[in-house]
């Protein structure tokens, strides 16, 4: 019998894999249902000008309200990409965020918007029209919208991705490279994509001031941004020393729990209504 012949292990693997596939499919079905039921929501994290401490933009971050809990994107963006749901979900995110920020701007709040994109979205048919539609319907000016992509956008189908991103730029929207510094070919990508913003990966900020190499690299990225005329945003600022170090290095913008955590739209409205930031 299989077990006595050492096949037992294989059966366990097969059962485990089966359970995982079923779990994945169930999750994907739940995600589809959640989109239909309106169970996704957006939080907004302020991006500040480090010199003036003014909030200049917000980054939209998606959450899934499942029962009483708020599920973080790490748990569902991957599965949403695999199932293709990221395309309609991404469109919902874009439209929701554009509408919200357009309302804030109409209330005389001079603020910009950043939205994360997944590669699958960018390469999907009619993506450029989707962005154009979200802008048109919300009335948000294209120049106020930054689309964040990570370097992996150039791995799957670099020619097509560059083509799409150029078409997006022609709409007038801006592009940011997210998690900059993690990919091995970051500098080459900068030239190819002609981005407006680089967002320094939090792993650099974490060791800022304590690790000499990381500190030097961070300083180099900031100077590179200055030389190229590209906006630099430091991500993951959690401690006052990090903020001070970044300021002393001339880093233009920052984002992180020290400045403000991601919050629901109402939280942002309270902030602008006078609560202010602790800087
Ligand atoms: P990201 O685009 O790099 O977003 C920044 C992440 O860092 C957010 O996590 C934010 O909550 C977190 N963060 C901000 N400041 C700090 C800090 O000081 N310390 C720490 N430890 N974390 C900080 P979140 O919301 O869980 O999102 C994780 C990732 O999921 C995002 O990374 C992005 O790649 C993806 N994601 C989020 N929302 C969307 C979306 O609407 N569409 C797509 N395609 N991806 C999204
Ligand atoms: Mg981002
Ligand atoms: Mg990202
Ligand atoms: Mg990032």
Automatic annotation (TrEMBL):
KW Cytoplasm (keyword) present: no
Domain EAL: 24-276
Span of the entire protein shown here: 624 to 902 of 902
Keyword Membrane in record: yes
Name this polypeptide is given: Diguanylate cyclase (GGDEF)-like protein/PAS domain S-box-containing protein
Organism: Nocardiopsis composta
Keywords, alphabetical: Membrane, Transmembrane, Transmembrane helix
Leader sequence segment: none
